[in-house]
Batch of 2 targets.
Target 1
Amino acid sequence: MPITRDAHSITLTLGEFSSTRIALKGATVYSYVQSGTERLFTSSLSSIETSDPAAIRGGVPICWPIFGPPPEGNELYEKLKQHGFARTSVWEFVEEESVCEGEQGVKALFKLEPNSSISSLFALPFSLHYTVRLLPSSLSLSLVVSSPSTAIAPLPFQSLLHAYFRLPPSVLPAQTEVTPLENVSYLDKVQGNKEEFVERRKKVVVEGPKGEVDRVYLRAPDRLRIGYQGEKGSVEVRKKNLADVVLWNPGPEKAQTIKDMEPQGCERYICLEPGQTSSWVNLEPGQSWTGSMEVSWNDNDDNSQ
């Protein structure tokens, strides 16, 4: 069956060697198998069960309506935890709009709207629709945010797709390169996240103090590539209507403070996260906004050049 479900997740299958799994908690894509190989990292110490209140550590959590901690002095967000509530809320699987599109792929739709728990944290009305498409050679993720026509105030928000890309077994984060980010302005959160810098490297190596990298590249290109030093293979990330991209790995020292990170887990992934973080989207009543990304892998791509 191309679409199956259990108590905690939905599984999409296309052919013998391609599948993706989406947890109802957070509508988090926590597995993507392409050509028989797992492409995402999800910590073995993290739970997909809806009864577990913690966000899933890995896959592609959805950060909404804020990225990072709540902005200071803003009553609308003061009750929210880091990255908002979308990644910890239980989403509705919209079965009637989730279909197999034949050889073209399989799609699943998820919906989140205010409930009593959300309304106690966030006062504004909204509607989120999230479409996961398993395609023959890629994975497509699309978030639609709507402000109902009955709303009496604009809906301001940030949004980010917090993607954890699994590295090949022989590759460490410091052997990973992201392009093209040359001449792009960025904020370095390891250094305090206040001053803007300009990236001067043609290839950005994922390495920082004690291994930690945490940068927000502002108005980044919509097509990005992850390559590996001394190893074939690459990931292509194509984003749309998400201005920025976050590059993150906690490094081994900080990773030890993350309680749901498996031992040496930080050595197995890098996060490259398309998002709308440097500016806020403001939806007037009746308006909608869509942000999306599509990712694909090429195991034979030559990184020697």
Target 2
Amino acid sequence: MRAPIPEPKPGDLIEIFRPFYRHWAIYIGDGYVVHLAPPSEVAGAGAASIMSALTDKALVKKELLYDVAGRDKYQVNNKHDNKYSPLPPSKIIQRAEELVGQEVLYKLTSENCEHFVNELRYGVARSDQVLNGINTFVTKVLPAIIEFFSEMGARTPKNNQ
């Protein structure tokens, strides 16, 4: 039997499992979250929200968690509480609500939804998805590319002149 999903508390980080990536929001109470979304995105967009990576602006939205998650699973994930001290919930909520409705700069690698919620909760903008992606690229993809081109170079006949 599966353990029930704990009810989020105000100030909690919510990790939403989208296909191909994780969307992040901050719970502010009464079923609502604040999160970054492209200005054109509708709540519950699911996989279609991957298009948010192609924009350079995002809108800070306050929406029901149920609507933002849509059919995607989600969980409370305050994963950095052991590294950073969370701000008081009242301060997190105040900061989040002050930003609702604002259009902000969006960059996949430095100013995405995960950076946004970590900044609100801890005062530290960070995205493990970006760090993990860079690490995967450097340790797995890049060596494979180098190996591929090395092998291609070894197979290419040399012209003797």
